[in-house]
Amino acid sequence: MSSKYKFHNPDGIYFVTFAVVRWVDVFTRDIYREIILDSLKYCQKEKGLRLHAYVIMTNHLHLIISREGKNLLENILRDFKKFTSSALIKAIKENPYESRKEWMLEIFETEGRENPNNKYYQFWRQDNHPIELISNKMMDQKLDYVHNNPVE
User: Fold this and answer.
1) For the chain, where are the alpha helices, taking DSSP H only?
2) Cβ neighbours, 10 Å, residue 40
3) 101, 123, 129, 146: which could join 85 in a potential S-S bond, CB 3.0 to 4.6 Å?
C-alpha cells in the first residue's frame, strides 16, 4: 500500500471509502445495512471512533471520521472491516431469503483465494484511501459529496 494512503496525522479528520469487492450490491438489503450501522455504533462507543458523516450506498460506504482516545484510526478501521466482513458473510450464508447467495459467496470466495492475506473469503476491497481534511473547504467538499452521493 502506498504511503499516500495512510493516516499520517493520528488526530486528523479523514474521508474514507470502503467498497465491496467487485462492487457487489450487498447493501440493498436492510439486514446487511444494520450490520454496518451496529458496527459503527460499537466502534463509537468502545473504540473511540468519531463519526462526523456517513452514507451507505449499495456497494460501498463513505465516512468522515476522526478518533478520540488511544486507538489509532487505522486500527479501528482494520477491526471494523474484519468484523463486518465476517458478520456480513455469515448473514448472507444464513439468510434464507437471499436470492443471490450462491453468486455473492462465489465472488467473495474467489477474491479470498486470490488474496494471500485471507483464508476463505474477502468481502471488502483492500484499499480505503484516507484523505485528511485539512481545511474547511475540503471538509465542505467531502460533506457535500457524502450528502449528495445517494441523490446523484
Assistant:
1) 30-42, 73-94, 101-114, 136-148
2) 19
3) 123
Residues 120, 118: Cα–Cα separation, whole Å: 6
DSSP helix, strand, coil percent of the chain (3-state; round to 5): 50, 15, 35
* Alpha-carbon distances, residue 23 vs 12, 78, 96, 107, 150 (angstroms): 28, 19, 23, 10, 16
- pLDDT mean over 78-95: 97
pLDDT of residue 138: 96
For the whole model, what pTM was predicted?
0.91
In Å, how far are 28, 48, 54, 108, 126 from 22, measured between CA atoms? Answer: 15, 30, 21, 9, 12
How far is 8 from 78, CA to CA, in rounded Å?
A: 16
pLDDT band at 129 (very low <50, low <70, confident <90, very high): confident
Is residue 66 within 8 A of residue 11, CB to CB? The reply is yes
Identity of the residue numbered 70: K
**Lookup: cell for 22:** 467487485
Mean pLDDT of all residues in 9-17? 96
